[in-house]
Amino acid sequence: MQQAQQNIVQMAADAIARHDNTRAYACMGGSLSFRELGLLSDRFAQWLVHEGGVRPGDRVAIMLPNLLQYPVVALGVLKAQAVVVNVNPLYTPHELQRILVDSGANTLVVLANVAHNAAAILGHTAVRSVVLTQMGDLLGWFRGSLINLLVRHVKRLVKPHHFPQAATGLRQALRSGGMLARTRPALTATFSADSLAVLQYTGGTTGVMKAAMLSHRNLLCNVEQIANSMGEDFPGAGAVMVAPLPLYHIYAFNLNFVMSLLRGHQALLIPNPRDVDAFIAVLGKVKMHGFVGINTLYSSLLDNPGFRQLDFTTLALAASGGMPLSPQVAAAWHELTGKPILEGYGLTECSPMVSCNTHTHHRAGTAGRIAAGTEVRLFASDGSEVACGGLGEICVRGPQVMQGYWNNAAETAHVIDADGWLHTGDIGQFDQDGYLRIVDRIKDLIVVSGFNVYPNEIEDYACSHPDIKDACAINAGDELSPLIKLFVVSRNPALTAEQVIVHCRRGLTTYKIPRQVEFRTTLPKSHLGKVLRRELRDSALATTL
């Protein structure tokens, strides 16, 4: 595999020139062509440099959901030779302040709907420029104005806010940037492929919030690895790629922003995939070629009768990552669409992909084979390498591995050893054909009478019960006195804890059977849909105190 020698800006310029007036992004009834994306991102970059005071290497925080504004802003930031700091728009003021202070971001681009959270803490950060945008800003004058009116005055989704400094509207910044582009020299991408492109915040391998430093080379090498691994499975130029996962997460950022841009895809951006009925209505209007999702999203769609009425004849690729794919969801999707969900494995620190399945090489229940140009080894707790079939910590080495954690040399040294191996904190197993199976997180492992119990195994089996929609297993005791507790979301209000335990006895060894079952209407989940085990452990501990 050839390592990327260009940066994202240079490769984006080539892609924009090739695809020109074809559609690049669509959202909420509006769209941007590649040419429009290039022009608008140029204008935003000019504003950042000449009016926003952004210098090469400065950090610009982007607090946006999946809207047309996101690719314009993100590409503009990179064109200004600055660093994208992705921020979840749902973050509380406390969470946002931590990221802005840690990153040292001097510019914030924020959606008006969540601007009140930013305004509450901005005086305690280094942010000196704020760019404010509304939902409809890039949807054309009439449609955009109508949507902005409805959001602000009918639905009342914009709360009062006041920034310490004057905020610039995104449309105003783009107008100013357009005038500057006619009087100032063009911005040139003089930085190298090894320059920092993104600070991607993550709980990482230790659960402490920190920023993975991803270079242009990291991201572009991973795009190349994905393309090489998928081969003909990955759709070509013009394909409609459904993008329901947030672009501020590394999984969607590299697949639906960087990859789609470079390969000439049309990315269909979904601002709120939790509104399943509205999501399905949008899907009914397009011929989709690719779909990138996670287990919880696939499950919620499959549970909706309207989804089953859609046309899947053009679907060429359905990919899953970020969390384990349940066998029940995989089987139901394949039965409905005629295509398997191709599961892969990755993490923020790897830009993100490490392994994937393909249509040619697919083994259900595994994360596929290792991506080209990537080394993966499994190590035991004593540092010895684990043989094929054994369980060990997944360690990764390759061009997609991050440069380190931002301003955190101690955490970097903790996860990247002297030989360049990234210690992921995940437990894995290779079969004889080289397929990787993800067993669980080391920190979630439960040891019962000297035996290792993996929560994923319990959850997968529990969900094979027709009445169980979702489940999460935790240790509600401690290391000396472990107690397996299963949280269950049931489709049947009459289901009892004893029935759940009886079901588990049918398929699990005695020491793996939950001793406690608690029913919940929902399980706490991250913005990407991962179950937050820590919250459930904390609630279980509080109950026993």
What does this structure look like?
This protein is an alpha/beta fold and 545 residues long. The chain has three domains: 26-187, Rossmann fold; 218-442, Rossmann fold; 446-544, GMP Synthetase, Chain A, domain 3, CATH 3.30.300.30. Helix content is 33%, strand content 23%. It contains 16 helices and 26 strands. The strands form five sheets. The protein has a nine-stranded mixed β-sheet with strand order 2-1-11-10-12-13-14-15-16. Helix 1 (8-19) packs antiparallel against helix 2, helix 2 packs across helix 7 and helix 8 crosses helix 9 (250-263). The longest helix has 17 residues, at 34-50. The relative contact order is 0.09.
N-to-C CA distance:
55 Å
Strand order of the largest sheet: 2-1-11-10-12-13-14-15-16
Rg is 23 Å
The SS-based structural class is alpha/beta
Low-confidence stretches: none
The CATH architecture classification of the largest domain is: 3-Layer(aba) Sandwich
The name of the CATH superfamily of the largest domain reads ANL, N-terminal domain
Largest sheet: 9 strands, mixed
What top-tier CATH class of the largest domain fits best? Alpha Beta
CATH domain fold name of the largest domain = Rossmann fold
Mean pLDDT: 93
The tally of strands reads: 26
